[in-house]
# Entry
Amino acid sequence: MDEHKENIEGKYVNVKMSEGTEEGQTKPCSRIHPDEETAPQTSQSNGDFSHPVYKEIALANGHINRMSKDELRVKLAELKLDTRGVKDVMKKRLKNHYKKQKLLQSAAEGGPTDTYYDFICVVDFEATCEEDNPPDFLHEIIEFPMVLIDTHTLQITDSFQAYVKPEVNPQLSDFCVKLTGIKQQTVDDAEPFPDVLHRVVEWLQERELGTKYKYAILTDGAWDMSKFLNIQCRVSSIRYPQFAKKWINIRKSYCNFYKVPRTQTKLSTMLEKLGMTYEGRPHCGLDDSRNIARIAIRMLQDGCQLRVNERMHGGQLLSVPSSAPVVGAPPPRKPSSRE
Ligand code: AMP
Ligand code: MG
# Structure
């Protein structure tokens, strides 16, 4: 079911992966930057890994690589860390525990430091659809949910949900109602997209995101922004919002971090591999967002520094290299119309 999201053909978007070393959407995440496990993921990370702390981390990693599953479990338990998940997940968790400790120690002694997002805002749109969406199907957003993760406490602190009235095809297909659980009456009673986007911006502004607090958007796959939002903005004749131009694609982060093939990054598979189960109703945008947030929190707990890895530019989907600085999303602004 999840694969569908990344196979939907967009009418208005040219999907082109370029720039730097990140993986393309369709390729498995098999090629990892050689320095990725030990390299600093900071805005100062310009490839200077000569600080002795990186040698220490590399040595610890080598040791962990030689550990059996049982040894990993025992060590994690000793350190009072989570012992769930498959061997690769446990390995990564242990490596990042040591990496974090060593970097903290070295920062206290004047070594490399870090500034990270204060919040991550998970978005998972639901859109009009048909069974086997025809290639020219014009998807319109019908649910706009957001779930806010505080990266300091690693808790979900807030959420937002609004349904949206589709304008071009106001009638939902039976398939769409069944898939998303969204009723015809619900979208009939909802506001059109520009009004909902207005409320979304207010919600983000009230929480001082992009001003007082550094934040990034996170999605499950690239299509939420590069297809659904992009198409919707054209349908509604509004400019693509600046604050949504860059985001963290968790599928990409997940396969790079745990070193698994791209085929193992369906929402249900990611949950399963982390030893978790889906909570709520699949394809309810808010429940999907909450479950994506649970994965993001687990990844942060395991030491992954989730970073912006995709962006939209001139209607095209581009990759953001992992060496790019940790820049937060800009302050959200009220939707403006296209000339
Ligand atoms: P998801 O976040 O996986 O719930 O998917 C987002 C949107 O993608 C849905 O609201 C549908 O518009 C579309 N979609 C997802 N799965 C399917 C499917 N199996 N068939 C057709 N469209 C789908
Ligand atoms: Mg969804």
In short: Residues 7-28, 30-47 have pLDDT under 50 and may be disordered.
